[in-house]
Specification:
Length: about 110
């Protein structure tokens, strides 16, 4: 028995006859890792409205500087830096998907 999955045409990137991706001009360099780091840090922080993520782009790499409420520093860094390292790993994987190197710094204000 097979399951048929319906795919909405709006969810699929289409390639025209010349091999051009129709959404190519709408993509932000590092958009995927930015979305991932934003989602993760907002989910971890108890004060997500206080989260500020600054980005710096340099020749094929993106640096994310995360600012959080002082009370959330421990939550975002984790014991022995395990949460921070996990964030860096996941963001690096998302960056690899976009073809960019990433670095994540958690900044103490």
């Amino acid at each position: 028995m097979t399951d048929d999955l319906a795919v909405d045409d709006d969810d699929v990137n289409t390639i025209d006859d010349e091999g051009q991706d129709d959404d190519e001009g709408n993509r932000l360099d590092g958009g995927t890792p930015l979305a991932v780091v934003t989602y993760l840090v907002h989910a971890i922080a108890s004060e997500p409205d206080a989260v500020v993520i600054n980005t710096e782009e340099r020749s094929g790499s993106i640096r994310f500087r995360i600012h959080v409420d002082p009370e959330d520093m421990g939550r975002v860094i984790g014991r022995r830096g395990r949460v921070a390292q996990a964030i860096r790993t996941v963001v690096a994987a998302a960056g690899a998907r976009d073809g960019v190197q990433t670095s994540v710094d958690i900044v103490d204000d």
